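Reference record:
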Amino acid sequence: MPYTRGNNQNIIVGAAAFFIADTTLTPGTLPSLSAGSAATQSFRETLTANASYDNVGYTMNGLELQFQPNFGEVQVDQVLDVAKLYKQGMTVSLRTAFAEATLENLLIALAYGSSKLTGTKNSAAGQALDLSAGDLGECPVERGIIAVGPGTGDCDDSNRIERVYAAYRALSIENVTVSAKRDAPSMFEVSFRLLPEDTSGSYGKIIDRTWTITS
C-alpha cells in the first residue's frame, strides 16, 4: 500500500450542541440512534424533540473531555527508575461554559435540584433561584449529559456524520462565578465530574453516526 500523509476528512473542527438530561442515564436509557426517523435526522433534532432533555443554548470555548489516570509506582533496589507502574485510579471530567446566563443554566452549574427554581420570568413576581446553603446529608444532583458535534467525513456528502458524547452521571463540582461586567459577557464556566454507571461501570460513550439528509 502506498504511503499517504493522512486524511483531512478525519480532522474535526467545530463546537457541539449541549443537552442536559433531567436524570442520570444508562446504556439502556439513551435515546435511539438508529430506529425510525432517527436515521434521517440529526441527533440534535432527536434530543430537541425529547422533553426529557434541555438544550443549554450557546456555549463558549467548546467542550473539553479530560481523562486523568492515576498510577502507582513499584521501585526496586536494582533499578534507579521505577520498575513497574500500575493503574490505581481514574478521574474523568467534562468542561464547557454556558454563554446564556439564564437561571436554568445556573441551576445546572450549581448542581441544584429543580425545586430551587420558582416562578416565571414573564411575570410581575419574576423567576427566582434560591441560593441555598443546603443541609447536612444533602445529596448533590447528578444529571446525564449528551453533546452533539461535528464528526469525521465530507461535509458536502448527502450523508452527514456527527459525533455524540454521552455521559451517564455528571456532577458539577468546581467553583461557579456569576458576574456582571462592563466589558465581558456574563457566563457560567462549569466543570462536570463524570462518574461510572453502576451496571456497566462505564462513564458513557462517544459515538460516530451517519444520518441521511432528506429533501
Remarks:
- The mean pLDDT is 90.
- Helices lie at 43-48, 103-109.
- The beta strands are 17-21, 53-55, 59-74, 84-98, 117-119, 127-129, 143-150, 159-172, 188-195, 204-212.
- The radius of gyration is 21 Å.
